[in-house]
Amino acid sequence: MEQRRVVVTGLGAVTPLGNTVNEFWNNLIDAKSGAANIKKFDTSKFKVKFACEVKGFDPLNYFEKGEVRKIDPFTQYALVASGEAITDSQLNLESIDKTRVGVIWGSGQGGFTTFQNEVVDFARGDGTPRINPYFIPKVIVDIASGWISIKYGFMGPNFTTVSACATSNTAIIDAMNYIRWNKADIIITGGSEAAVNEAGIGGFSAMKALSTRNDDPATASRPFDVGRDGFVMGEGAGALVLEEYEHAKKRGAKIYAEVAGGGMSADAYHLTATHPEGLGAMLGMQWALQDANLKPTDVDYLNPHATSTPLGDVSEMKAVVKVFGERPDHLHLSATKSAIGHLLGAAGAAEAIICLKAIETGTIPPTINTQEVDPEMPQGLNLVLGQKMKKEIKVAMSNTFGFGGHNATVVMKKV
Questions:
Q1: I need a labelling partner for 73 at 20 to 30 A (CA). Which of 48, 111, 194, 332 fits?
Q2: Catalytic residue among 165, 247, 355, 406
Q3: Where do the structural domains in the chain lie, given as residue ranges?
Q4: What pTM, to 2 d.p., does this model score?
């Protein structure tokens, strides 16, 4: 039986480089940095004082005051990004069969800010549990998918994936498969995260995962560079409308690209470190290509996980060489976490949007801040450094890896 094809018909974004897709994309290809000193809390006693925060986001521009009390920032970002994606898709919400529309969302941390604030308030009190009645529904990680479905009346499959920093790629793969399996015709997917707070910055700093380049935050995220010293925390959301191909064609939808395949694997190696030889990453990429019925030579652009950590960047590039060969002339790579930081559970969604816009515009955004490529990196890879590059892109691949050894790779193809 012929497999149902899945395409992307809508995009939405809330990011450190802009709170719409166009603003995000334009700043990205113009080599802007989203990193700056943290404004959300007092960092005077913190070792790390900067992050890639979402800027100019006032929830009261999107929600009633009473609603804001009920919704953690990670869900606010999810609702705003998914709203843009649904508008972009031009879905007729009055005529579609909402029982055939689902939401499969992703978040690694969920309502992290709400949890922190409630615990701090309790600890400062006299022991009386004056807990916000919305505490639990603000905190639980699946609540963003619930809010999206409630807002629009979508009654199809509804759940949330959690695989740390591989989360939203996992969500996209699940959404693709549910449409392939004829469980839905349309699924809103993506991921959101809001972990720029005392607990998030303090926790990742304690495990020495973050860059400490406080003297120059804008250039702190420098993938592949010999002087890289950790990732820069990011936040925000990316949303995609996935739709069955014939369904999209029938209603005359704009199609960005096809979600051609996905691959998931486990390193089975370490709680937080990637496999030193990139074996899990290699399997994820190989299985994604197999699922898409494509060859390594078909891939024109790879958006790697490349967080700017000393070990992770090298191990991933070793995996790339295992999959694509030592000198893959056809393949170009750019590490966009250099500009937007690491959005944790939202990273895959933001980077899927980057791949889709690269296919649409024939433009590869640059890796910024990389001044001297680490000689430990495999040689012969085409890294797009400093400035955007024009190139026809028929196939793009996006890698995401998460603590616990989770790997998820998505492949997108021009239709």
A1: 48
A2: 165
A3: 7-413
A4: 0.97
